[in-house]
Amino acid sequence: MANTSSDDPTSPFLETGDNINHGREESRWWKRVLDIQEAKSQVLFSLPMILTNVFYYAIPLVSVMFAGHLGQLELAGATLANSWATVTGFAFMVGLSGALETLCGQGFGAKAYRMLGMHLQASCIISLFFSILISFFWLYTEPILVFLKQDPRISKQASLYTKCLIPGIFAYGFLQNILRFLQTQSVVVPVIFFSAIPMAVHFGIAYALVHWTSLGFRGASLAASVSLWISVLPLGIYVLSSKKFKHTWGGLSFESFSLILTNLKLSLPSAAMVCLEYWAFEILVFLAGVMPNSELTTSLIAMCVNTETIAYMITYGLSAAASTRVSNELGAGNVDGAKNAMAVTLKLSVLLALIFVLALAFCHNIWAGFFSNIPKIIKNFASLTPLLAISITFDSVQGVLSGVARGCGWQHLAVWANLATFFFIGMPIAVLLGFKLKLYVKGLWIGLICGLSSQACTLFWITLRRKWAKMDIAPNREKENPVLSLD
């Protein structure tokens, strides 16, 4: 009895208590560093979004590869057309759908479930309208590219390729809207299958249209359009038929037209946010093309841009997670929960960026070998690796903060931040260092880093200073609050 007394400092009861207290202190320590439960939820949310983004991104990329195997002129034309279509159409459609991250995300959190379907329809109407405008714009691709001092032969090929992408821009707009509708309800796992199947089928469609028909070069871009429509139709059927959406999708309604203006107030700034960043990267490629030894500088910039894009795909999943979690929590009136979700996502983004940077640091020669086997290019890419590591880190942070801005409905502030930081800070510095100080590719990329770092700091300042509050997602309407089960 004496040996087991609670007064005995060696008592097993006291040891157990010490262990429990130690465990609690350790748990509290980890809680201060990272909310494990929130982080786990976000990682499980992000992974499907990353895979989905990769699959949809690969569809037009695979078409470019098929076109490239037809000849050097075809490769140049398809590459130019894909870049042109991205910055003038596809990126714009991704941005337009950003309004749903605010409206549907906060509506779901506020349990105004019926409004999600209404906003989806309004966004699809807007996408349809802008797809028509983009289609007419793409019809004049050749004279526009020639005016921009592109090679006339390559411009003609790019024009042929772009015209066959016109049906695809309509599908892509609808696709992005449906994805945001599902994302804001945290329905992400089924989307992996809906994106993987069209990606797998696309290889067969592209091969058939390029090699088994008289379309040839045009068949590659037409295959991308077909595969994008194949991507949209199953998703649409899934939303219409699944019981998961019986409260959030109430069928077609003319009421959605009254929400178009509300949607436009967010979708246009959101589109500008995305496009301004895409245009900044494309300007770098253009500037590299007018430098001395342009073949080398363009190759290096293209390698850096592609590497940054692949790294951003990981950030995209976390950006979507931040947008969804923040908008859901704000819709539910839980400001502290929204801020905690943002903090967790930022920590995860920095962690993943560091992992990517370490992999790049140790394997940069292997990675460069995938793009070229020319020793001079591989050597120069190695010298750019430290700068690339810095830009990837800042890009990860700003990607998450951009997601927070979309979740909070701050698109109108973020677009001004992107305009100022990229085009009044980043690009002028890039031109000064690249041309005046003759740092060439390094100067261009340092300018980009200045833009990205300024953007991240500005968005962080907005996040700290701005009042966090939910938006009125259903003005002058009674909110419906049915009990929703997603089991």
- Uncertain regions spanning at least 5 consecutive residues: 1-17, 476-487
Number of helices: 16
Which H/E pattern describes the elements? HHHHHHHHHHHHHHHH
Q: Give the N-terminus to C-terminus distance in angstroms.
A: 54 Å
- CA radius of gyration is 25 Å
Q: Can you tell me about this structure?
A:
- The protein has helices at residues 12-33, 36-68, 72-96, 98-109, 114-138, 141-147, 152-163, 166-183, 189-211, 217-241, 260-289, 294-331, 335-371, 375-408, 411-436, 440-465.
- With 487 residues, it is an all-alpha fold.
- Mean pLDDT is 86; it is low at 1-17 and 476-487.
- The longest helix has 38 residues, at 294-331.
- Helix 2 packs parallel to helix 9 (189-211), helix 9 (189-211) packs antiparallel against helix 10 and helix 11 packs parallel to helix 15.
List keywords for this structure.
487 residues; mainly alpha; globular; disordered N terminus; disordered C terminus; Protein DETOXIFICATION
Outline the fold blueprint.
Blueprint: H1 12-33, H2 36-68, H3 72-96, H4 98-109, H5 114-138, H6 141-147, H7 152-163, H8 166-183, H9 189-211, H10 217-241, H11 260-289, H12 294-331, H13 335-371, H14 375-408, H15 411-436, H16 440-465
Helix pairs in contact: 2-3, 2-9, 2-10, 2-12, 2-13, 3-5, 3-7, 3-8, 3-11, 4-5, 4-8, 4-11, 4-12, 5-8, 5-11, 6-7, 7-10, 8-10, 9-10, 11-12, 11-15, 11-16, 12-13, 12-14, 13-14, 14-16, 15-16
